[in-house]
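Handout, section B. The chain below has 153 residues.
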Amino acid sequence: MPDLLVNLINLPAQPSLSKQGVIVRSAQPWELSAVRSFIIEHFSTAWADEVQVGFANKPITVFVAISERKLVGFSAYECTRRAFFGPTGVLESARGRGIGTALLIAALSGLKEMGYAYGIIGGVGPVSFYEKTVGAIMIPGSDPGIYRDSLKS
């Protein structure tokens, strides 16, 4: 899976999901266990490990999406490597509502606030989503990227 490059200078506006009853906000320190458990159950232990790094950052570099007081998605940045976005995930039952877009924009905006002009989306699966949503472009020669020598879990 390739890495993508995103220009952070011209990010789209943060979409509001309040009419849908969805809140996208920064994760809080006391939510680490709940977020890790959610990621392990619905995505992977490796992603939970990466996101744990975001909880150690000051400020925390993890966003959560909440609907009816339940976690339905997350995004993280500056966890895997400097200037990297991800991992991110939205429950299958909550997809198609703009939650992934809101989480993406929130995290990329966090990278921009840190002073980066460009961000990297590492090991991308849905390339077309990122191309369409934030104008990301593929980085030539980036597949398999930083994950090439990863331990199997």
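Note. The beta strands are 4-7, 22-26, 62-67, 70-77, 84-90, 118-121, 137-138. Compare this with the example in section A.
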